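Hey, resending since the last one bounced:
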Amino acid sequence: MASVRILKRDINYVLGDIIEAVYIWELTNPTKDNKKAEAIIDDAIATFDELIEKVNDKKVENKKQHFKAINKELEDRGRKLIDKINAL
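The structure tokens again:
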């Protein structure tokens, strides 16, 4: 992990792109129900908050391992959100 700043930027970009993809889906499908799409946005925001909170945790003993775990969690949760978008 190069730096905490890059990890925070990655979290922001990945989840921001997911939210943007949901908005694009909503615009291209105006007749469909948007409740599931809004739930995906809410999940992305909650994920962002949780991951940033973990990054800012100062009580971690092994920071390198901690940040790698956060990066892995970002990938896993991001893929799950993308799968939900594809299922819309």
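The helical segments are 4-28, 35-55, 63-87.

Sorry for the duplicate.
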